[in-house]
Write a structure and sequence with these properties.
By secondary structure, the protein is an alpha/beta fold. Helices cover 45% and strands 20% of the residues. Strands 1, 2, 3, 4, 5, 6, 7, 8 and 11 form a 9-stranded mixed sheet that branches.
């Protein structure tokens, strides 16, 4: 079975498992926070995680999921997990790099040439090497969720080259590497939590932001920003983190169930994001009682109806951006640690060569 079809089937299977969640009172109630919007593949996957754990522990562990930053911005949620106020969260590596500097390696611009390379690398031995850095900061890393390749939107002008970013106020995640990257490109980065973006765009506090176009439409950012650039400059990966003290108190069999849930969640999440990509990001609606889809317009049709001007970067355009951010790679090799950095880059090179 081809990768796309397999992930799609598993994604749908994950949704099926979400149907008819049992009631009752669990002996242990757990909070799981993230910032993805309703209907997003990450949200569907996190809900799958909760259902899987509830079923496999026979209701002993009930996980309540909180999307859309209901428990706070990502940095706040990471701090809450670290402190034990909440037990689980899925946080972008950009924000996690404030706690675990090595996580920044996944936020280097134009790191992965495509999704297949990314998934192969993240499933290799470098995954555990990265996760091994987390316990020192009070976290246990279980797996990945994702939020697609990032693109740009803004209210001022089309962006096709680094010079077009000069002087624009661009919202970034609360992450040193994101801030440094946009400074390197000549923009004025404005770090702020995800839930604050729409109001900041509407009020002119910022000119633009970078998120997958699918997310930007779901969050209504494109109602305010009328210029979009399909850049695919970064695959946004989030890591499912668990409070270490809470984890250590779990029975070994429950720890294993959470590990299984994280692995399956990864597959479900990727299935939905890949489905969106393969279908030109058709904004279909799913009837959760029947799992039947009602076809919707593509992202491009939605953007056209909103009078959004779209620029798609060519391979040549991307090379210009890559050259402009070379200093970021040099700086973060030192901050991440040369040995781990070089191993990671060597793995990308190896995988890319094998795929070709």
């Amino acid at each position: 079975m081809k990768l796309g079809k397999m992930l799609f089937v598993l994604g749908v299977a994950g949704l099926v498992l979400l149907l008819g969640v049992s009631g009752g009172h669990a002996k242990m109630q757990v909070k799981f926070g993230h910032v993805a919007p309703h209907g997003h593949g990450q949200t569907i996957a996190v809900d799958y995680f909760a259902k899987y754990v509830f079923d496999k522990t026979n209701g002993e562990i009930e996980i309540k999921t909180f999307p859309m930053g209901q428990l706070g911005g990502e940095r706040s949620m990471a701090e809450q997990v670290q402190a034990g106020t909440i037990q689980i969260a899925s946080i972008t590596t950009a924000v996690l790099s404030n706690f675990v500097p090595q996580a920044a390696i996944l936020d280097l611009p134009f790191l992965f040439p495509d999704r297949r390379t990314a998934y192969t690398v993240l499933g290799s031995e470098v995954r555990e090497l990265l996760f091994d850095f987390f316990p020192k900061k009070g976290f246990v890393a279980l797996g990945f969720t994702e939020n697609e390749f990032r693109d740009l939107t803004n209210s001022k002008r089309p962006i096709k080259s680094p010079v077009d970013l000069q002087g624009l106020k661009i919202r970034t995640m609360e992450s040193p590497i994101f801030i440094d990257t946009y400074k390197q490109l000549g923009a004025n980065p404005v770090p702020m939590p995800f839930p604050e973006i729409y109001n900041a765009l509407q009020q002119g506090v910022i000119d633009g932001q970078d998120n997958p176009l699918y997310t930007s439409i779901l969050m209504k950012f494109t109602e305010v920003n009328k210029f979009a650039t399909i850049s695919g400059h970064l695959l946004t990966e989030c890591i499912i983190i668990v409070n270490q003290d809470w984890w250590n108190k779990l029975k070994p069999e429950y720890q294993q169930i959470l590990k299984e849930a994280a692995y399956n969640t990864e597959v479900v999440n990727r299935g939905y994001t890949l489905q969106d990509t393969l279908a030109l990001k058709k904004l279909a609606k799913i009837d959760q009682s029947t799992c039947k889809e009602t076809p919707g317009p593509s992202i491009y049709e939605v953007l056209k109806s909103q009078n959004v001007q779209v620029v798609e970067l060519t391979a040549k355009d991307k090379e210009e951006f890559k050259k402009a951010v070379e200093p970021i790679y040099k700086k973060y090799r030192e901050e991440i640690g040369g040995e781990f950095f070089d191993l990671f880059m060597a793995k990308i090179k190896e995988v890319t060569k094998n795929i070709k």
